[in-house]
Design goal:
A hairpin with a 2-residue loop joins strand 3 and strand 4. The chain is 27% helix and 34% strand. The chain is built from six helices and 20 strands. The longest helix has 22 residues. It folds into three domains: 78 residues, Ribosomal protein L6 (Outer Surface Protein A, domain 3, Alpha-Beta Complex), CATH 3.90.930.12; 82 residues, Outer Surface Protein A, domain 3; 86 residues, Nucleotidyltransferase, domain 5 (2-Layer Sandwich), CATH 3.30.420.
C-alpha cells in the first residue's frame, strides 16, 4: 500500500475543488489550476477532505497513487500560498532587470539576454542581482528557474554565474601553467601539486646522488640575473664551498669586456646580455667553487 496515497488532503477555506471524470480543477485566492487524471486513479471529495484511491495493486498504478495525491496537494498550496524560487547572480557587471514580461539579463556576453516570462509566472529583481520567480504551478516555477540558471551556470573557480539561493558551489583551486621538461608542452598544475612535485623530485635526486667528502655534490641555482653554486657533503650535511654572482668579488672581477676592444677594464656581470651572462658566469663560478676547495 502507498503510504503517501492513503493520506487525505485537507481543503482550506476559500478553495474550491471540482473533480471531473478526466481531470481535477482547483480554484483559490491566487488563481486556478487543473490536472489530468489517469483512469486507474479515482479522486473523491468528502466534505473538507480529498481522498485518492487506485483501481489495482500493479506496480505502475501504485506509483501513480502517491504521485497524484502529491500533485493535488501542490495545486492547493499553489492557489493559496504560491511557490517561488530565488536566484542569485554573481559576477562583475552581471545584473538583471524586468521590463514588462521580459527579464533582461547581462551575463558577460556580447549582448543582453531577453528572457520572456511564460503565462502564470512573475519575476521581481532586487539590487540587480537577486531574481525571484513566483507562480501557482510548482513545476512551471521550477522549470523557469532552471532555464534561467542554464543561461550562465556557476563556474567552480570564482563562482561567477547564476545559482539558486540555497545552492552550494563546490569550489576548485586555481591553476598555474608551466612547461614540462619531458614533452615541452604547457600543462596546468595547482599550487599544492607544485609543492608535491618538488618534494618528489628532491627525494628522487637524493636517492641517486649523494655527496661524500671524497666526491662532493655540486648544486647550482641559476636565475635570469644571477647564479649560485654550492659544493655539498651530504654525509655530514655541510656546505664545503659556495660562490655567488651577488658577491663584491664577482661584481668587481677584472677581465676583457664581452664584445669590446678596449684593454683590461673593470666589468660587471649585471651589464652583460642575458644569454652571454649566463654562459660565461656559470663557467666562472663553477671554476671558482672548485678553486675555493682545492686552494689551487
Amino acid at each position: 500500500m502507498s503510504r503517501v496515497g492513503l493520506k487525505k488532503i485537507t481543503i482550506p477555506n476559500g478553495v474550491n475543488v471540482k473533480v471531473n471524470p478526466d481531470n481535477v480543477h482547483v480554484k483559490g485566492p491566487k488563481g486556478e489550476n487543473q490536472k489530468a487524471l489517469r483512469p486507474e486513479i479515482k479522486v473523491d471529495v468528502q466534505g473538507t477532505e480529498i481522498a485518492v484511491s487506485r483501481a489495482s495493486d500493479d506496480r505502475f498504478v501504485r506509483s501513480l497513487h502517491g504521485l497524484t495525491r502529491n500533485e493535488i496537494q501542490n495545486m492547493i498550496v499553489g492557489v493559496t500560498q504560491g511557490f517561488e524560487k530565488v536566484l542569485e547572480i554573481n559576477g562583475v557587471g552581471f545584473r538583471a532587470a524586468v521590463q514588462g514580461r521580459v527579464l533582461v539579463l547581462n551575463l558577460g556576453y556580447s549582448h543582453p539576454i531577453n528572457f520572456e516570462l511564460p503565462k502564470g509566472i512573475d519575476a521581481t529583481v532586487e539590487k540587480q542581482t537577486t531574481v525571484t520567480i513566483k507562480g501557482i504551478d510548482r513545476y512551471l516555477v521550477g522549470q523557469v528557474a532552471a532555464n534561467i540558471r542554464a543561461l550562465r551556470e556557476p563556474e567552480p573557480y570564482k563562482g561567477k554565474g547564476i545559482k539558486y539561493k540555497d545552492e552550494r558551489i563546490i569550489r576548485k583551486e586555481g591553476k598555474d601553467w608551466k612547461i614540462t621538461r619531458k614533452t615541452g608542452f604547457m600543462m596546468a598544475v595547482s599550487g599544492k601539486e607544485k609543492v608535491l612535485a618538488r618534494a618528489r623530485r628532491h627525494e628522487r635526486v637524493r636517492n641517486k646522488i649523494m655527496g661524500t667528502p671524497e666526491r662532493p655534490r655540486l648544486s647550482v641555482y641559476r636565475s635570469l640575473d644571477n647564479i649560485y653554486a654550492q659544493i655539498i657533503d651530504d654525509l655530514s650535511g655541510k656546505t664545503l664551498a659556495a660562490a655567488s654572482s651577488l658577491t663584491k668579488a664577482a661584481k668587481g672581477k677584472r677581465g676583457n669586456s664581452p664584445g669590446g676592444t678596449s684593454k683590461r677594464q673593470r666589468w660587471s656581470v649585471q651589464n652583460w646580455p642575458p644569454l652571454q651572462k649566463r654562459r660565461i658566469s656559470a663557467r666562472w663560478f663553477l671554476i671558482e667553487a672548485v678553486i675555493s676547495i682545492t686552494g689551487e
